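Thread: "does anyone have the structure for this chain?"

Original post by V.I.:
We have the sequence but no experimental structure in hand. Need at least a predicted one for the grant figures.
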Amino acid sequence: MSKRYKVCPLFWNESGDCYRLRNQNAIEELLNDGWKISRVDTMSPTEFQSGTTVSATNVYILEKQNEEKQSEDTKKSSVSEFLPHGMGLHVELDTNETCYLKSGWKEHCGYIYGLAVSYTDDSGIVSSRPDNPVPIAIMNSHVRLAVSFEEYGTETTK
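Reply from O.Q.:
Generated one for you, tokens below.
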């Protein structure tokens, strides 16, 4: 199993003459620790036989990838980290698309930014623009392969 789950209720609690929201700090800490909200359900107010009423409660289902899976994703997200920025970049995406970026591309905040001189979409259509490159931003999480290539002679064949 590559994911773990936690259930965390968020509710109002009577404290003397006022009400206080409970568990918001716990949810905040879990979110800061890499947990993601995968689902939110609401439990309606409930009245017990004793006459006690419990207020409505939001129940957060949180999920987090196992550490092993996270380290694989970290490797994947930094796939272009050690590639030379002075060369072109050949990028294959998990959507079966391929981009060829001019030298000088940059990596910042989970994206690769550059000028695309050639692009192949998932249907195999090639768009070459060596004289008029197009600005592009590629999410690192979608990169399947990134390798440098000689920028001159960027004709692509499929």
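V.I.: this helps a lot. The longest strand covers residues 3-15.
O.Q.: and The first helix runs from residue 24 to 32.
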